[in-house]
Write a structure and sequence with these properties.
Layout (H helix, E strand, L loop, with lengths): L8 H31 L11 H28 L8 H17 L10 H32 L3 H51 L6 H4 L9 H8 L3 H22 L1 H8 L4 H29 L1 H15 L15 H31 L2 H4 L5 H30 L7 H21 L4 H10 L1
Helix pairs in contact: 1-5, 2-4, 2-14, 3-4, 3-5, 4-12, 4-14, 5-10, 5-12, 8-12, 8-14, 8-15, 9-10, 10-11, 10-12, 11-12, 11-15, 14-15
């Protein structure tokens, strides 16, 4: 049997770059596509569609993607090739993913039209499916390339660094580029940069560093067996409720600045860049603390911190404790950066840990299905967050004269995260660790 090598430092760094690629592209899309279609920067056009209609279409796109997650996960787990189980999927999905991202910002009709509705619905379904075709196999490499908790936390940290850099470039750079060269110029530059990052991890020879023995379970059996892992289910509820709430906040980033704070589109980048700089600086602390006190304690800190901070978005744009709205906004985003650092690192390490329990359930290594099952639920939750956002804005207002819909996004998000706190507090970390020691 061929000896499996330990992934060196350069490999950990290169692996992380893929996360930067899809995070950059996806964050540009999540941040600006909603804004692009409901406000329309096209001269002479008020809007390409109503907010609630966009929310419904986004949910349908997420639903298609959710179905694709376990299908692609099972395909990757059972796949056999000279390149391994994961790399072929990443190789063939990257270019198409970037191309569809660009096409989404070129609606066929410059007005509110059923043509745009169909166009957006079809392309979003394709976009999210291609996203999964890259991301699910990519994430499945993490527990395969790193086989100890220490190495997994390190690998998750490098992935988080590049994810944060990708998100930072998307949020900070996109607003600046829009001001300089317009929406379409920004989209093309982000697509090219993202694609370069997507293909760097293919330098790693998967079979040199990972056990690539294909699994044999069928789709239904693979899915049902995965959800019998109760540690995974508890973690999943905590993580998904967080992302449901936090995605509501993310969707409203441009509106917080342009409506509640009265700023401009390019100020969105400067304002929210604070959170990501703080998160990046906090990464070493998360890495060290997770090894000392465990993954559960650090994750609980993040969930509780978000639950406390997100309701404060309700008063964004108002003077608080004698502070100007801008200063209060800067402080709030700085504080958000602390738990955000945790969410970028710890979930991947937890999934890597709980996927080891699969050997006790089926005797096979099926890392991709765990990320695929998570993706299935997560995509539905993200789609639901878009519907909730559209409903809040349409029912309660999304303008400076009627901002209640925007203000309510913070407290509503916190309610979802409260559910995550209550469920994740039951995560059986001792049981997971004891199984690893037995192996």
């Amino acid at each position: 049997m061929k000896e499996i090598k330990q992934l060196p430092l350069w490999g950990k760094i290169i692996y992380g770059t893929g996360s930067g690629g899809f995070s950059l592209i996806d964050r540009v899309l999540i941040t600006w596509l909603f804004y692009y279609y409901i406000t329309s920067p096209i001269e002479g056009v008020e809007a390409l569609m109503p907010p609630f209609a966009f929310g419904i279409i986004m949910f349908l796109g997420r639903a298609v993607d959710a179905v694709a997650d376990p299908v692609i996960a099972r395909w990757s787990d059972n796949y056999k090739s000279r390149l391994g189980r994961r790399m072929p999927f990443m190789l063939f999905s990257g270019v198409a993913y970037a191309a569809v991202f660009v096409a989404l910002f070129y609606p066929p009709v410059a007005e509110t039209s059923a043509v745009n509705t169909v166009y957006l619905a079809v392309l979003l379904g394709v976009y999210f499916t291609l996203f999964t075709a890259y991301v699910c196999p990519y994430l499945a490499l993490l527990p395969e390339l790193a086989r100890s908790t220490k190495d997994r936390v390190d690998l998750a940290t490098f992935r988080a660094v590049f994810m944060l850099l990708g998100v930072g470039v998307a949020l900070i750079g996109s607003g600046i580029l829009i001001g300089m060269i317009g929406f379409h110029g920004m989209v093309w530059i982000m697509a090219v940069l993202g694609m370069v990052l997507l293909y760097l991890p293919l330098i790693i020879k998967e079979k040199d560093y990972a056990e690539a023995e294909p699994a044999t379970l069928g789709l239904i059996e693979a899915i049902s067996t995965t959800f019998k892992n109760h540690a995974f289910v508890i973690y999943l509820i905590g993580n998904v409720t967080f992302w449901l709430g936090f995605n509501i906040i993310t969707l409203n980033l441009p509106l917080y600045v342009t409506v509640l704070l009265g700023g401009t589109e390019d100020e969105v980048s400067i304002f929210f860049g604070l959170a990501f700089v703080v998160a990046l600086l906090f990464f070493p602390v998360v890495n060290i603390m997770s090894k000392k006190v465990g993954l559960k304690a650090v994750m609980m800190f993040a969930l509780v911190a978000f639950m406390v901070l997100l309701p404060l978005f309700f008063v964004l744009g108002q003077p608080v404790l004698g502070l100007t709205p801008e200063i209060f906004g800067y402080i709030l985003m700085t504080l958000v950066g602390l738990p955000l650092a945790v969410i970028f690192i710890i979930p991947d390490a937890i999934v890597a840990e709980v996927s080891d329990l699969e050997e006790k359930l089926s005797g096979q290594k099926r890392e991709a299905m765990y990320f695929g099952a998570q993706g299935f639920i997560l995509k539905l939750a993200l789609g639901l967050s878009t519907i909730i956002t559209g409903a809040l804005l349409q029912l309660f207002g999304s303008t400076a004269a009627e901002p209640l819909g925007i203000q309510l996004t913070g407290p509503v998000s916190a309610l979802f995260i409260l559910i995550g706190v209550l469920v994740f507090s039951r995560y059986p970390e001792k049981e997971v660790r004891s199984f690893r020691r037995e192996r």
